[in-house]
Task: inverse folding
């Protein structure tokens, strides 16, 4: 038992470290790419990734999540489970590749954009198989190899991009960096599958078993499709209605908030198993843990949002003057950070308390709202319209989730409101300092000093106590049970 708890604790550490390093490395090479190629070419590059990312989910259809869950339940059936998923995935990969090729071949996009899409689709196909291979490892409660591979993947991309930019090899070779890294991940994950777990592929389809896997995968597939469309349709709409340059402009706020998500992701990685355990055994502690999670993410998200709004013009200069048009878009998107961060504990509570179907419905409603708002805003406001949609839809899904929470747990919303007020006052102090210093000092010093002022002000306002941090940390450590590995696996996916 002690060994199992130790392994699960290691999984948490591997996952969190890998997540943080992934975000740092990927954001670093994004900055290099943006500074080197400008908004228009950046728009072509990320349109290709966004377009193929949508099709990528139709390859997997949630089967990898099911594979992880079923392997954990029935390890003796791993070979049969894996073979069934793999044989289902092969025709889906072929169908997706053909469909993307036809759509691009008969589109009005320039040849360079088509070639970028073709290369990106190769990445999506390889990554989908890699996801399935590592799903087996997750089923055996092992995130070590996947965590290592994810970091090596980013390092390969970074190294190839440095070479491409150094010798000015062009957009196609920038995309080739992803192909090379995806090929590495594919080979590495397959070797782990064969050598570590000894899985053999049965090429004779078990039709009844495949049908059962597809049926079980359906709820996972629906949510995954909604989520993927929500994340990437805005870039596709921007390309269609506003052009490549606006896609490139929009990528600045998109990548910044995407990089910042490691904060709530790492937090929720430990929160989820605690919520799951308390749902079964201790409803009072469930309410307390949810309240604290909301409080901590308010304390973290408010200064990031307000600081980002105040310092947006300085942040944009990191990407060179070609992107000054992105300032307003960044400011709007930074405001969405608060709702985006708070959606993590709300969504985790619903999932931990057997309300996955509600989460899927909420995501479907949010996707529909996103499509409508993007169709209204993008033709008129371009990248600003896409950012405004991000703000409104994050607010919507937060409200939808928060409406369900009182049906699950009786929490003290007044405590959360008090923390919100205290954090708001501390942020006002921080904002004044940041606004005064931003033209006096460089960005790093301004952020550092403003951040220090925020936490000092919050401490004197009694917005947090050392005992709170110790208590919630202990509650997470006590509940690193079997559910931890499964929940971490979902986050890693």
Result:
């Amino acid at each position: 038992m002690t060994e199992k708890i130790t392994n699960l604790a290691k999984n948490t550490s591997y996952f969190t470290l890998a997540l943080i390093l992934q975000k740092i490395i990927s954001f670093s090479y994004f900055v290099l790419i943006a500074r080197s190629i400008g908004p228009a070419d950046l728009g072509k590059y990320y349109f290709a990734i966004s377009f193929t990312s949508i099709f990528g989910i139709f390859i997997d259809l949630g089967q990898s999540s099911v594979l992880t869950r079923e392997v954990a339940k029935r390890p003796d059936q791993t070979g049969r489970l894996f073979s069934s998923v793999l044989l289902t995935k092969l025709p889906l990969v072929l169908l997706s590749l053909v469909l993307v090729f036809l759509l691009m071949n008969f589109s009005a996009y320039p040849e360079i954009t088509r070639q970028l899409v073709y290369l990106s689709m190769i990445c999506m196909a390889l990554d989908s198989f890699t996801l399935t291979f590592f799903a087996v490892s997750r089923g055996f409660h092992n995130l070590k190899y996947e965590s290592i591979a994810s970091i090596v993947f980013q390092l390969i991309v970074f190294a190839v991009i440095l070479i491409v930019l150094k010798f000015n090899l062009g957009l196609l070779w920038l995309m080739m960096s992803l192909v090379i890294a995806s090929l590495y991940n594919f080979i590495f994950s397959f070797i782990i599958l064969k050598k570590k777990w000894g899985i053999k592929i049965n090429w004779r389809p078990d039709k009844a078993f495949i049908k059962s896997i597809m049926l079980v995968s359906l709820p996972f597939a629906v949510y995954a499709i909604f989520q993927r469309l929500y994340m990437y349709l805005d870039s596709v709409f921007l390309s269609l209605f506003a052009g490549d340059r606006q896609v490139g402009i929009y990528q600045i706020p998109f990548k910044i908030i995407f990089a910042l998500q490691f904060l709530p992701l790492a937090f929720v990685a430990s929160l989820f198993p605690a919520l799951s355990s308390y749902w079964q055994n201790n409803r009072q502690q469930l309410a307390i843990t949810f309240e604290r999670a909301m409080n901590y993410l308010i304390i973290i998200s408010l200064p990031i949002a307000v600081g980002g709004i105040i310092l947006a013009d300085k942040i944009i200069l990191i990407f060179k003057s070609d992107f000054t048009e992105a300032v307003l878009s960044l400011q709007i998107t930074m405001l969405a950070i608060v709702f985006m961060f708070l959606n993590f504990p709300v969504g985790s509570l619903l999932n931990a308390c057997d309300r996955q179907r509600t989460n899927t419905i909420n995501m479907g409603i949010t996707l529909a709202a996103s499509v409508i708002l993007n169709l209204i805003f993008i033709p008129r406001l371009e990248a600003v319209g896409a950012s405004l949609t991000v703000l409104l839809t994050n607010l919507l899904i937060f409200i939808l989730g928060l409406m369900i929470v009182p049906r699950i747990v009786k929490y003290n919303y007044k405590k959360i409101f008090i923390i919100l007020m205290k954090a708001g006052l501390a942020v006002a102090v921080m904002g004044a300092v940041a606004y005064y210093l931003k033209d006096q000092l460089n960005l790093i010093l301004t952020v550092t000093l403003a951040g220090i002022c925020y936490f000092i002000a919050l401490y004197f306002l009694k917005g947090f106590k050392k005992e709170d941090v110790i208590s919630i940390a202990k509650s997470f450590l006590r509940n690193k049970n079997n559910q931890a590995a499964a929940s971490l696996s979902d986050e890693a996916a």
User: Anything to note?
Assistant: Residues 23-241 form one domain. The first helix runs from residue 2 to 60.
